[in-house]
Amino acid sequence: MYDKGKVLAGLAVFVVFMTFPFWFNIGATPFKAPELAKPKDAKNCVESVEWMKTEHMQLLNDWRDMVVREGTHEYHSRFNGKEYLVSLSKTCMKCHDDKEKFCDKCHDSLAVSPYCWDCHVAPKGENQ
Amino acid sequence: MNTNRRSLLKFAGLAVLGWSVKPALTVFAAGGAGPREAILFASRHGAPTGEKALKAGRWAMVIDTSKMTPEIQKKCIEVCHKTHNVPSIPTKQEIKWLWTAQFSDVFAEQSHPYLEKLTKRPTLTLCNHCDNPPCVRVCPTKATFQREDGIVMMDFHRCIGCRYCMAACPYGSRSFNFQDPRPFIENIDMEFPTRTKGVVEKCEFCAERLAEGHLPACVEVSEGAMAFGDLDDPGSDVRKLLGARYSIRRKPELGTEPCVYYLI
């Protein structure tokens, strides 16, 4: 075998780099879901909390197309059967009226920066 | 295939026979899903279906130039720009949804130097929500689209700022955001989004108000100088006005079929 030393050294460097994320995080505190400011008056969201946690981005995307492209303004909840107005500012943000204490908490900790607020006006908790 | 004169003539004869049964003109100009949908016309999207929503076959606006005073015009522009977070940028980069221009500029082909009273009069101008909108046909992303009830809408999410629509619109009804408009909005209305840099915008006939059962904001404050209604309904206000008074439209010769009518 030629260049045994170089190959082994290269392999060692490769293994160190590949496993870097694992050993770098040894002893680090595990990720904690941030505490969100929940709406005071509302008892439930348009869908179940668990579903909203995982699917809210899909829901918002669907709502956008419903209102803008299809002209549908009613949303029938599968959770409680009620009808909701399809609107970010008039439905979502009426309950979650503080973007910093609700949206930003998760988005910041996960390094996600949605561009919703470039156009839509973010509420600053004035209602409470 | 080896085509000789005999088979070519046979084929051409059959084709001529076919076209005489179904002329190309109808295929191109009115052969789509609806009477207003065809190959040369823009495709259309759904209109609101909700119970509260105002519905129409074809929305149109009628502006009575004899009742329209500069004060009313100012009120209309203010309420429009306030409800839709239209920034006031005092440069060439201004954003306009509803504005005034000289009659002789708005109706360049329909005025002459001796229409002395008319030519200098400020005339309210907005997007004409054409029946055959060129802006919709040129939009590469379909950010500009037309609804079944005729309203030419903007999907601000989808606009890539190519400005083809601005080049295509013969009325200059569209504005481009060269910069972030937010610093130029005095009181931001929470219920309506602002726009961002790099997006085209224009009047949408207050589609968001129609969905909730309200007339457009400018019509509401116009003190009767503006009417809004369904062109397909012979009993509607707009049809009655158009039947009773003489009316003109902007650049009718272009075939865009504008749906904003001016009573003279």
How does this structure look, described?
The complex is a heterodimer of chains A (128) and B (264). Chain A contains six helices and two strands; from the N terminus they run H-H-H-E-E-H-H-H. Chain A has 128 residues and is mainly α. Chain A has a two-stranded antiparallel sheet with strand order 1-2. In chain A, a hairpin with a 6-residue loop joins strand 1 (74-76) and strand 2 (83-85). Chain A is elongated and about 75 Å long. Chain A starts with a helix and ends in a 9-residue tail after the last helix. The model of chain A has no long low-confidence stretch (mean pLDDT 88). With 264 residues, chain B is an alpha+beta fold. In chain B, 27% of the residues lie in helices and 15% in strands. In chain B, the strands form four sheets. Chain B has a four-stranded mixed beta sheet with strand order 9-2-11-10. In chain B, a hairpin with a 4-residue loop joins strand 5 and strand 6. Chain B is globular and about 75 Å long. Chain B starts with a helix and ends with a strand. The model of chain B has no long low-confidence stretch (mean pLDDT 88). Classes of the chains: A mainly alpha (128), B alpha+beta (264). At the A-B interface, helix 3 and helix 4 of A face loops of B.
Quick gist of this model?
The complex is a heterodimer of chains A (128) and B (264). Chain A contains 6 helices and 2 strands, in the order αααββααα.
Write the layout of secondary structure elements.
The complex is a heterodimer of chains A (128) and B (264).
Chain A: H1 4-18, H2 20-24, H3 49-70, E1 74-76, E2 83-85, H4 88-95, H5 103-109, H6 116-119
Antiparallel strand pairs in A: 1-2
Chain B: H1 5-21, H2 24-30, E1 44-45, E2 59-64, H3 70-83, E3 98-102, H4 103-106, H5 116-119, E4 122-126, H6 134-138, E5 144-147, E6 152-154, H7 164-168, E7 175-176, E8 200-201, H8 207-210, H9 217-220, E9 226-230, H10 237-244, E10 247-248, E11 260-263
Parallel strand pairs in B: 1-5, 2-11
Antiparallel strand pairs in B: 2-9, 3-4, 5-6, 7-8, 10-11
